[in-house]
């Protein structure tokens, strides 16, 4: 089998899709698949660039034959190129945020709906989504047929391994992953006001978030441009993960903390609670700073509860191994040939 994996043009600050499928590529190759990595020449953010990318994609899929059947897989964000591909194609939709961000009267709503979501989903042979939540949203927001949708979750990078560390109850280091508006940093800052702790932030906070951190006298540090190894080190050095975002397509940091052996405080929303697993995280209302504060204090003050979260988290991550996820994709590809 030949697998053409299509990627968006690389962004300097967004690389989660690339990291996910580059690692899956290695697993596919180990299973005898011929993988071709194809990165689009243009950002897919205007109609002119969409046309340019489609013309380019059409030139990349020559040479497929009965002797070497091909599957084309668009890995995310650039699903419109599926219109240029001949043969079985798969698209992956990570979340439906653009359809929720814009009102229906806005031109960008219709651009995203027909060029990224509904149109490509109708054209593709199969659509994979990374969570049950994304599947439900896609059904609610579009007319895509449910039988086309396949839930295949993300996996935890195998480089994440358990790292024991005594919990610093006097002044814990709390890890925050991400700084986009949905990551809810301002409410977390309010929740931590007066709590002896240090907040370690991956990403550069906005001016508004910096103002909130300073207004609540939070001791914090932020870093950007970290290598994968440096990100893993941040997990090792923290005492707990606060992942109280208001919207996610999946929520991979929850699993990364669980593998490392750190307790998690996360949002009582979907997909957070499903990803965390039963008893795998302290679930809080992300819209209420008082609830976030209480969840964090429960972890800090109660060692038995904290250790229970860590143990349940370790049990939960077994279901998110790369081999299991790779096999599910390969089963889907084979069913389309």
TrEMBL record:
Residues 36-159 form the Glycosyltransferase subfamily 4-like N-terminal domain. Signal peptide: none annotated. Residues 166-315 form the Glycosyl transferase family domain. Pfam families: Glyco_transf_4, Glycos_transf_1. GO terms for molecular function: glycosyltransferase activity. Keywords: Transferase. GO terms for biological process: lipopolysaccharide biosynthetic process. This is Glycosyltransferase family 1 protein. The lineage of its organism: Bacteria, Pseudomonadati, Bacteroidota, Saprospiria, Saprospirales.
């Amino acid at each position: 089998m030949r697998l053409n994996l299509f990627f968006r043009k690389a962004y300097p600050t967004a690389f989660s899709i690339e990291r996910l499928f580059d690692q899956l590529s290695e697993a596919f190759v180990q299973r005898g698949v011929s993988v071709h990595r194809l990165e689009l020449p243009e950002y897919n953010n205007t109609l002119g660039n969409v046309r340019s990318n489609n013309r380019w994609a059409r030139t990349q899929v020559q040479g497929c034959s009965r002797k070497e059947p091909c599957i084309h897989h668009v890995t995310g964000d650039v699903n419109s190129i599926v219109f240029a591909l001949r043969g079985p194609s798969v698209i992956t939709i990570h979340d439906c945020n653009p359809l929720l961000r814009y009102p229906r009267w806005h031109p960008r709503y219709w651009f995203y709906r027909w060029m990224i979501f509904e149109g490509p989903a109708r054209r593709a042979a199969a659509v994979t989504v990374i969570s049950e939540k994304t599947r439900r949203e896609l059904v609610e927001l579009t007319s895509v047929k449910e039988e086309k949708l396949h839930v295949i979750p993300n996996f935890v990078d195998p480089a994440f391994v358990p790292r024991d560390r005594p919990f610093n109850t006097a002044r814990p280091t709390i890890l925050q992953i991400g700084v986009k508006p949905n990551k809810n940093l301002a409410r977390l800052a309010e929740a931590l006001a007066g709590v002896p702790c240090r907040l370690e932030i991956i990403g550069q906070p906005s001016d508004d978030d910096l103002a909130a951190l300073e207004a609540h006298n939070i001791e914090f540090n932020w870093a950007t441009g970290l290598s994968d190894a440096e990100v893993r080190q941040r997990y090792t050095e923290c005492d707990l993960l606060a992942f109280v975002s208001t919207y996610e397509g999946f929520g991979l940091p929850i699993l990364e903390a669980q593998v490392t052996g750190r307790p998690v405080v996360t949002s009582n929303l979907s997909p957070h609670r499903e990803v965390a697993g039963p008893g795998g995280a302290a679930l809080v209302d992300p819209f209420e700073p008082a609830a976030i504060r209480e969840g964090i204090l429960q972890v800090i003050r109660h060692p038995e509860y904290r250790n229970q979260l860590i143990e349940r988290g370790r049990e939960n991550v077994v279901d998110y191994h790369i081999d299991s996820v790779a096999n599910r994709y390969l089963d889907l590809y084979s069913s389309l040939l």
